[in-house]
């Protein structure tokens, strides 16, 4: 029989610990996010559906995107115990320079649509976090403006080859003049992938005021007011566009690009050259032979060819083929610091993340991107400690496997 009694106030008062949240509404919202997934749900509520779906979606039936996430869910770590992990160093060397994490912010297009602070906010966070950031050809901030906003950041410029080769050459010269240290040539976009969410949403650049978008504006008035009361979208590569993303890609990008273009770019560019969009061993060898300093094993986040190879599954073979001659990065499906740790253990020098920081940007602007950087840093560090490794160099293939 349990004896019941009335608790004394002194016993009860010890249990009352009100949580002290920041005074600012945005800070309070972001403080509640424990994972990138939490920020994704916040982002869904704060922007129009078409904008969220442009970020969140992929090509076709989105099979490639699901497979990328499923690959990381199949990861099994092999931890070691009784190792001194009181101090963990998650830093890496990328393209000959230090990075605080084995991580870079990937290039993303139309970024100011997610939040008008856009790429400048991302660049400032990258500068504070000590990691590189790549500005997209389809970015909504000019490379010169980004360089001014984040002068101490490691800045890479992502290049699509255009049908107008003089225009492509001019972009390379601008990147050189603005002090960008690397070019990231994306090679998996000869034409636009079938992004069906965008088709169904009638997504265009800039957003068109249709009955559907006007109705959506009533649900997201702050986003629309912010868009309409700040400077018009300015692209890194063109001044204006009035169609869909697919129409822009099909009209501007070069479907006749070949390996010779990689060699020509290598001859023209004095900095590091990264080739993004490699999905197999043969292509990896070919672009490294043509002069690439690094390759990104990538299927464009599942946004181009649906049912394409899953980057994490392709990574070990590419590392084995070219890892002694070039750095190998990977992207696609990375939403957690443990994903980064797993990819590095499988042989990647670093990971590129895009959707993750865009969720933060939609959820809270620059502060949301900072929250993503903080979450990923904490997750990477803690995962390394729980694995029993004190440095990135100790993340070897014997520490990880993919469950069948």
Structural commentary:
The protein has a single domain (36-396), classed as Alpha-Beta Barrel (TIM Barrel), CATH 3.20.20.70. The longest helix has 33 residues, at 355-387. With 404 residues, the chain is α/β, with parallel strands linked by helices. The strands form three sheets. It has an eight-stranded parallel β-sheet with strand order 4-11-10-9-8-7-6-5. A two-stranded antiparallel sheet has the order 1-12. The radius of gyration is 22 Å and the shape is globular. α8 links the parallel β6 (154-159) and β7. It has helices spanning 9-13, 25-31, 36-46, 49-56, 63-73, 118-129, 143-149, 165-177, 196-201, 211-219, 221-228, 245-252, 259-268, 281-289, 311-322, 337-345, 355-387; strands at residues 75-77, 92-94, 97-99, 103-105, 132-135, 154-159, 182-186, 272-278, 294-297, 327-331, 350-353, 400-402. The chain starts with 8 loop residues before the first helix and ends with a strand.
Query: What's the tally of helices?
Result: 17
State the CATH class: Alpha Beta
Q: Helicity, in percent?
A: 40-55%
* Name given to the CATH architecture: Alpha-Beta Barrel
Spatial order of the strands in the main sheet? 4-11-10-9-8-7-6-5
């Amino acid at each position: 029989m349990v004896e019941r009694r009335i608790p004394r106030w002194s016993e009860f008062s010890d249990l009352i610990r009100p949580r002290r949240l920041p005074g600012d509404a945005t800070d309070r919202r972001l403080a509640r996010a424990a994972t990138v997934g939490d920020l994704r749900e916040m982002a869904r509520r704060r922007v129009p559906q078409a904008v969220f779906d442009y970020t969140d979606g992929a090509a076709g039936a989105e099979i490639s995107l699901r497979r990328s996430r499923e690959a990381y869910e199949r990861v099994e770590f092999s931890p070691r115990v009784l190792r001194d992990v009181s101090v963990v160093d998650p830093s890496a060397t990328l393209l000959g320079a230090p990075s605080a994490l084995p991580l870079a912010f990937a290039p993303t297009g139309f970024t100011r649509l997610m939040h008008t602070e856009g790429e400048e906010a991302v660049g400032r966070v990258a500068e504070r976090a000590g990691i590189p950031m790549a500005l997209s050809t389809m970015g909504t901030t000019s490379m010169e403006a980004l360089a001014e906003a984040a002068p101490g950041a490691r800045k890479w410029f992502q290049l699509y080859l255009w049908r107008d080769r003089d225009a492509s050459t001019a972009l390379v010269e601008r990147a050189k003049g603005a002090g960008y240290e690397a070019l990231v040539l994306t090679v998996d976009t000869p034409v636009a992938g079938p992004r069906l969410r965008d088709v169904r949403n009638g997504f265009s650049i800039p957003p068109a005021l249709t009955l559907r978008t006007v109705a959506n504006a009533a649900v997201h008035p702050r986003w629309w007011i912010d868009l309409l009361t700040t400077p018009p979208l300015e692209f890194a590569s063109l001044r204006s566009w009035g169609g869909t993303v697919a129409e822009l890609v099909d009209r501007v990008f070069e479907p006749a690009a070949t390996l010779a273009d990689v060699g020509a770019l290598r001859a023209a560019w004095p900095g590091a050259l990264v080739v993004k969009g490699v999905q197999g061993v043969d292509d990896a060898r070919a672009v490294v032979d043509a002069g690439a300093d690094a390759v990104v094993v990538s299927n464009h986040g599942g946004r181009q060819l649906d049912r394409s190879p899953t980057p994490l599954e392709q990574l070990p073979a590419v590392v084995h083929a070219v890892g002694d001659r070039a750095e190998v990065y990977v992207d696609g499906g990375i939403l957690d610091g443990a994903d980064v740790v797993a990819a590095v253990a499988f042989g990647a020098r670093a990971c590129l993340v895009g959707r993750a920081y865009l969720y933060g940007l939609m959820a809270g602007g620059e502060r949301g991107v900072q929250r993503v950087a903080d979450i990923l840093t904490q997750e990477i560090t803690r995962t390394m400690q729980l694995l029993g490794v004190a440095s990135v160099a100790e993340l070897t293939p014997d520490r990880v496997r993919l469950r069948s």
